[in-house]
Amino acid sequence: MKAEYQLIKNYKDDEALRKSLSDLAKKTFGIDIEAWYQRGYWLDQYIPYSIVTEGKVIANISVNPMEFIEKENTRHLIQLGTVITDKKYRGQGLSRYLMEAVLEDYRTKTDGIYLFANDSVLDFYPKFGFEKSKEYQYTKEVKNTGTQSAVLKPMKQKEDWESLEKVMKAQCYVGSFEMNNPGLLMFYATSIFKNKVYYIEEKNTYVFADINETTLILYSIIADCYVSEDWVIEAFGDCISNVIFGYTPIDVKDCQKREIKEEDTTLFVMGQGLASFDKEDKMFPVISHA
After folding, report:
1. Strands, E, within the chain: which ranges?
2. For the chain, which domains are there?
3. Helix axes of 158-168 and 182-190: crossing angle, nearest 10 degrees
4. What are the average pLDDT values for consecutive 10-residue runs of the chain, which has 290 residues?
5. Contacts of residue 243, Cβ cutoff 8 Å, sequence gap at least 6
6. Would you call 109 exposed, middle or buried from its count of C-beta atoms within 10 A (0-12, 13-18, 19+)?
7. Which phi and psi angles does 219 have, rounded to 5°?
8. Strands 242-245 and 205-212
9. What φ, ψ does residue 213 adopt, rounded to 5°?
């Protein structure tokens, strides 16, 4: 690496570097990291590793410590995301340097490390010991009979975010492989999914979802008491006849399963905690992608 380049880690409160990373991420992926920070949701579970020159971030890999709740187990993983190199600085091995630095720091400190790769770099990650893995998604045909009680509740302002946060802090997990990462969930709630949040007043339940004609795409259920997936699905009314789960449901006996094969989302894994993930018939929740 050139002498004028510097590796800087974990600098969320450095305004200049933070805004530089946000500018690069916005230019590359269309995501606004600075807005996330200003809303107070960039927490300790997002750790950038950046190459900096003349005060500007030119390449980055971010470390996301992730906790996943299972029936009788909690899995502690590291997700790598926001993998970027400014176009002007590509071809200099900066991503390789960053990957080596991250793995040196975290390889032995977690149950496993994973990432989702763009199709253009599928040959890059095996060089570091990552292996391709598989995910499986579930769908279900339903026969709802009631009227819709789930109402769209856009996350427009601080009061909306705080109401969701309050429920989230007392969350009862519904899926079989659920993310516990408040900062990342609130990133989705206040940006990408801000117009995809529904509220069911009867049991104070928030639902991240899309409706496409008769299909309900169910991403996450946030409730402070136990609610069944069937009860949530019924709350979307009798116009729904099919459900696509954006996470792994608890009860899959009436579901159809398919291997996920989508553009730019190839899963790579490393470590004992993920060695058999492709045989677990699970998926990482859509809203856990960093």
Report:
1. 6-9, 47-53, 56-69, 74-85, 112-117, 131-132, 136-141, 151-152, 178-179, 197-200, 205-212, 215-223, 242-245, 256-259, 266-270
2. 6-135+261-285 (3.40.630.30), 138-257 (3.40.630)
3. 150
4. 92 98 97 97 97 97 96 92 96 97 96 95 96 97 96 97 95 92 96 97 97 97 95 97 97 95 94 95 96
5. 139, 140, 141, 142, 215, 216, 217, 218, 233
6. exposed
7. -95, -40
8. unpaired
9. 55, -110
| pTM across the whole model | 0.94
Closest to 270 in 3D by CA, of 168, 74, 129: 129
- Read off the tokens for 193: 């999914």
- 192 within 8 A of 217, measured Cβ to Cβ: no
DSSP string, 31-49: --HHHHHHTT---TT-EEE
Q: Which residues pair with 53 in a beta bridge?
A: 56
| CA distance linking residue 152 with residue 195, whole number of Å | 8
3 state SS for 158-203: HHHHHHHHHHHCCCCCCCCCEECCHHHHHHHHHCCCCCCEEEEHHH
